[in-house]
Write a structure and sequence with these properties.
This protein is α/β, with parallel strands linked by helices and 138 residues long. The protein contains four helices and four strands. The chain is globular, with a radius of gyration of 15 Å. The chain starts with a helix and ends in a 6-residue tail after the last helix.
């Protein structure tokens, strides 16, 4: 999926990548969750980046309620610019996640498309799933 987005939209910047999982086709830049990853090639912290200046980018935050909401809010706020911007978020479909209300509120306005992968076709696990099991954290 990431390759298709990169090819079709020119999204060669990735937010919330790490030195171990940055996509092989991310040719422009990548931002990490952690500023310390700059020693491995990250441009800096995804939270501190100016997303409205990234052009086309992908973002895939940690699957915690707080990070999912905060990243979606940042992406939506980045669209409030005169310059064209396209953010493609990779999100789990947690039924009760707070980010779902924000997503639904902006559908058709700041959020134009939503593609949901059916359950069982992709596994989204929160970063601490090993402590709480493989269940919807919401």
């Amino acid at each position: 999926m990431m390759e298709a987005v990169e090819e079709a939209m020119g999204a060669r910047t990735e937010a919330f990548a790490s030195p171990l999982n940055v996509h092989k086709n991310t040719t422009k830049t990548y931002y990490s969750q952690y500023p310390r990853d700059s020693v491995f090639g990250a441009v800096g912290s995804a939270w501190e980046a100016q997303w409205e200046q990234l052009g086309a980018y992908q973002f895939n935050p940690e699957y915690t309620a707080e990070d999912l909401y905060r990243a979606l809010k940042k992406a939506i706020n980045a669209t409030k610019t005169a310059e064209p911007v396209l953010g493609v978020g990779i999100y789990p479909t947690y039924a009760k996640g707070p980010y779902r209300k924000l997503l639904n509120k902006h559908m058709g306005y700041r959020v134009h498309e939503r593609l949901e992968v059916k359950e069982g076709q992709f596994t989204f696990l929160p970063p601490d799933h090993w402590m709480q099991g493989d269940r919807d954290p919401q």
